[in-house]
Design brief:
Blueprint lengths: L1 H30 L7 H25 L7 H23 L3 H24 L6
Helix pairs in contact: 1-2, 1-4, 3-4
The protein binds protoporphyrin IX containing FE.
Protoporphyrin IX containing FE (HEM) binds next to α1, α2, α3 and α4.
Length: about 130
């Protein structure tokens, strides 16, 4: 139980760092800031994402609940995938400002959905 609570704390801290760093990079993208291209802005997110995922998988294993077995974890993984794809379009691959903008808000919505599912354990919004 102690280990689970520690993992959950690490997971939640990584969640907070992830959304702060993504929002900041989104603002830099919108304002056209060169800070988006700095080494730290490019590498730190990978480090945070790894912590988020490793703690998530370890916590799930301790609970004995697994994606594609338990609905809420499946929904979280799909929400995470949607966040990753939209985030990559927003910050790297989007060709126009409009596409990047739309993808950025889509990524924020996907992230919010995953947080909602994390707290309710219910994949349905309504
Ligand atoms: C964008 C990605 C993610 C976000 C924003 C997120 C968010 C959260 C939050 C806020 C909690 C705490 C809920 C609470 O205190 O009651 C949590 C717990 C948890 N998350 Fe995530 N999560 C993400 C990805 C994942 C993934 C991919 C997995 C599994 C493979 C996962 C597995 C878990 C588990 C097992 C818990 C503990 C649930 C419990 O307390 O019963 N998370 N997550």
């Amino acid at each position: 139980m102690q280990l689970f609570l520690i993992l959950k704390f690490i997971h939640k801290t990584a969640v907070l760092l992830t959304i702060c760093s993504f929002s900041l990079r989104g603002i830099w993208m919108i304002t056209g800031s060169p800070l988006l291209e700095t080494r730290l802005a490019r590498t730190a997110p990978h480090f945070i994402d790894t912590i988020l995922l490793v703690s998530a998988v370890a916590a799930a294993a301790l609970l004995g609940q697994y994606p594609f077995v338990d609905g809420w974890l499946t929904a979280k993984v799909l929400g995470l995938l949607s966040y990753i794809v939209l985030g990559a379009i927003a910050l790297t691959y989007g060709r126009t400002r409009g596409v990047r903008f739309g993808a950025f808000f889509g990524a924020i919505l996907s992230f919010a959905y995953v947080v909602y599912v994390a707290f309710t354990k219910n994949p349905m919004i309504l």
